């Protein structure tokens, strides 16, 4: 019993250790660039928490990360890797935008609800494609989701440079690839007079919903079960391909909703710089980091998203003040992922050893010794 | 018409280069049981380091060497995380991708800052052969990295099918328990293949930045590394079939560039989308074949476990 507690504490400490280790590497990189790390981190802190506006921006950034992270949680729990966050964000945002531009005369709140639902559904379909190909054709889902990301981005570029370009841009002849501003009636309500909007409340609501879904419903249980052990799931009568597609569908739905909320809550229009990250800010990848950092737990993903949101918001300030490229945070995110998955084995073997020695006695102690050799 | 076909074929051969290096490297790793999805990140680091070296020194050989060293270091790290720490290979691959992409962007903004070009490897006509009609122009007036990529196909085929090392690599990927009981050092074999894969990814990146495009910018590869991984599935882990896949993709690319240059009235976004769309279609079409991936792919080895 006592050792179990130790194990739980160790489990909780691993992401924090991974984070500190990544930060240490970041410090070294900043120092190598010839900049005082203390000054750099001060700028980062101020950028993330220095004013009401900064805090609001941090939370706004965390909102999208949370939606992506929740989607990732469902997929990873089902044992499938959804790397298609970028594409699902773009598709969700794009379809919500098109709905709002097509029906500007509907009452505001009705249009908001329809737009969010359409964003959610199109993200679900985009994710569902990868799930379908994985479940019924055994197509590696990492590759298919990455390819779907690029397809979504080029589709977005096409639409924004042509069919749905802001008529004003066409008239002025400046041809900036963006849509017209959405009707003000569909702006998500602001919580305080900053960029902080209703989105974060919806995101936290969904985090709780995902938690209840995964741990308190039969469907959620089955999704987690196929992630644990496919042969056992099959033996107990679960239709594995069906639940695999469902997991991907729900995963894409959450990400797509995140994209729609990003448009309605923050930008109020769709724009592109040619790449995915121009609109998403790489949230599709950073959301993976948030989910892993939150131990693939929907509620753990909330603080993880806030922390990453703070890092990313602060990094912009750091870039302006001390000229450290904000891409540094991207590199650190990669390191966090590596430290978390790298330490997983150490934690598992440690846990196994503790269990073997304490709970089973001499025989297994002997055995575990043999394993070490 | 003839000139168009020669032009497209010639550029297809050129453009196959990065795919070939990266895919053959990935084939080695996967055959030994390690799925490395960080190829794109390593390619970016290789591309940046080669480009920076050439920009500062003008020495192409040195640039290539630096890319090889950087690729080897990344290969070593990937092997450490996947083989020694037995990490979940799908996620660690994404970690290496994000890390390589971020680091190459940081280094680019700090050390170079704006878009420059360099003089990359010049065409190296092969005496006599380059004078052959048609074939001479298409195949034998390319640069040295293109020749190297094509030489890699018979070399890797020979390594994998005719040498004891190749047999060991495949044994480790198919049945590590059996290989282990015969005294094959699984960890050493996997380190070897993954580091070789890292080196080849580094060269793949260098082939973009100092031989084909002769520029570097953030995210230069645009997902090429992932397509290279897809090509390994497409090629069913056989070098010759990987070559076919690489040529298919480079031809799609070459046609796409030709369509754009000619100003044919297709939105460029659709032609740019083609390689990615083709990848998905091809992966789906390949799925029902009877070829199976190496049995131990994506499964860390633990002595004494099933």
TrEMBL record, chain A:
Source superkingdom: Bacteria
Keyword list, A-Z: Cell membrane, Membrane, Transmembrane, Transmembrane helix
Membrane-crossing residue ranges in chain numbering: 12-39, 59-80, 87-104, 110-133, 142-160, 196-215, 243-267, 324-346
Keyword Transmembrane: yes
GO CC annotation terms, alphabetical: plasma membrane
Subcellular location: Cell membrane
Main location: membrane
Molecular-function GO term, any one: transmembrane transporter activity
Record's bilayer topology term: Multi-pass membrane protein
One Pfam family it belongs to: BPD_transp_2
InterPro entries xref list: ABC_transp_permease
Protein name per Swiss-Prot or TrEMBL: ABC transporter permease
Upper lineage: Bacteria, Pseudomonadati, Atribacterota, Candidatus Phoenicimicrobiia, Candidatus Pheonicimicrobiales
From TrEMBL, chain B:
Predominant localisation class: membrane
Location in or out of the cell: Cell membrane
Transmembrane segments: 34-54, 60-82, 94-118, 138-160, 191-213, 219-236, 241-258, 270-287
Keywords: Cell membrane, Membrane, Transmembrane, Transmembrane helix
GO molecular function: transmembrane transporter activity
Source domain of life: Bacteria
InterPro entries on file: ABC_transp_permease (IPR001851)
One GO CC term, this protein: plasma membrane
Membrane topology: Multi-pass membrane protein
Name under which the protein is recorded: ABC transporter permease
Species assigned in the record: Candidatus Infernicultor aquiphilus
């Amino acid at each position: 019993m006592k050792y179990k507690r130790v194990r739980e504490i160790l489990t909780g400490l691993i992401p924090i250790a991974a984070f500190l280790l990544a930060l240490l590497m970041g410090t070294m990189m900043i120092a190598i660039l010839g900049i005082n790390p203390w000054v750099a981190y001060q700028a980062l802190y101020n950028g993330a928490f220095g004013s009401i506006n900064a805090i609001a921006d941090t939370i706004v950034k965390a909102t999208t990360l949370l939606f992506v992270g929740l989607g990732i949680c469902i997929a990873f729990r089902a044992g499938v890797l959804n790397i298609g966050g970028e594409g699902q964000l773009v598709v969700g945002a794009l379809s919500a935008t098109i709905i709002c531009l097509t029906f500007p005369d509907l009452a505001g709140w009705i249009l908001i609800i329809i737009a969010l639902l359409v964003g959610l559904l199109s993200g679900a379909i985009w994710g569902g494609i990868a799930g379908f190909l994985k479940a019924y054709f055994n197509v590696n889902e990492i590759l298919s989701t990455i390819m779907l990301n690029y397809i979504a981005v080029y589709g977005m570029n096409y639409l924004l440079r042509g069919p749905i370009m802001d008529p004003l841009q066409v008239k002025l002849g400046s041809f900036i690839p963006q849509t017209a501003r959405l009707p003000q009636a569909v702006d998500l309500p602001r919580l305080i007079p900053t960029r902080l909007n209703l989105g974060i409340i919806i995101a936290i609501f969904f985090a709780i919903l995902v938690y209840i879904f995964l741990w308190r419903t039969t469907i959620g249980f089955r999704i987690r079960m196929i992630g644990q052990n496919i042969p056992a799931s099959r033996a107990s009568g679960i239709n594995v391909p069906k639940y695999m597609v469902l997991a991907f569908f729900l995963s894409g739905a959450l990400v797509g909703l995140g994209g729609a909320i990003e448009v309605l809550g923050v930008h109020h229009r769709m724009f592109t710089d040619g790449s995915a990250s121009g609109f998403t800010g790489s949230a599709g990848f950073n959301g993976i980091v948030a989910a892993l950092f939150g131990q693939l737990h929907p509620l753990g993903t909330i603080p993880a998203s806030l922390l990453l949101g703070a890092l990313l918001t602060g990094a912009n300030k750091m870039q302006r003040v001390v000229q450290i490229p904000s891409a540094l945070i991207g590199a650190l995110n990669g390191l966090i992922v590596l430290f978390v998955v790298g330490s997983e084995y150490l934690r598992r073997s440690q846990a196994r050893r503790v269990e073997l020695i304490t709970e089973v006695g001499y025989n297994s102690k002997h055995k575990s010794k043999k394993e070490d050799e | 018409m003839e000139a168009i076909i020669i032009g497209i074929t010639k550029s297809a051969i050129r453009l196959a280069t990065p795919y070939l290096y990266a895919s053959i490297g990935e084939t080695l790793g996967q055959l030994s049981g390690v799925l490395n999805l960080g190829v794109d990140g390593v390619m970016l680091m290789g591309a940046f380091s080669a480009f920076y070296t050439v920009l500062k020194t003008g020495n192409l050989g040195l640039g290539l060497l630096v890319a090889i060293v950087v690729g080897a270091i990344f290969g070593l790290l990937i092997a450490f995380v996947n083989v020694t720490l037995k990490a979940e290979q799908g996620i660690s691959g994404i970690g290496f991708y994000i890390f390589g992409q971020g680091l190459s962007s940081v280094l680019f903004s700090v050390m170079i800052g704006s878009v420059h070009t360099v003089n990359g490897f010049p065409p190296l006509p092969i005496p006599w052969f380059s004078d052959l009609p048609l074939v001479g122009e298409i195949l034998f007036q390319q640069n040295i990295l293109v020749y190297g990529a094509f030489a890699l196909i018979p070399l890797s085929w020979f390594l994998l099918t005719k040498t004891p090392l190749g047999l060991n690599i495949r044994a480790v990927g198919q049945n590590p328990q059996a290989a282990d009981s015969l005294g094959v050092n699984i960890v050493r074999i996997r380190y070897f293949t993954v580091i070789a894969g890292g080196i080849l990814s580094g060269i793949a990146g260098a082939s973009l930045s100092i031989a084909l495009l002769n520029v570097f910018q953030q995210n230069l590869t645009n997902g090429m590394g992932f397509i290279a991984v897809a090509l390994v599935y497409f090629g069913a882990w056989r070098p010759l079939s990987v070559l076919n896949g690489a040529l298919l993709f480079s031809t799609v690319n070459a046609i796409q560039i030709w369509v754009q240059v000619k100003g044919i009235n297709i939105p460029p976004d659709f032609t740019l989308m083609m390689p990615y769309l083709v990848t998905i279609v091809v992966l789906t079409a390949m799925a029902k074949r009877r070829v199976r991936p190496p049995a131990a792919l994506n499964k860390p080895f633990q002595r004494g476990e099933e």
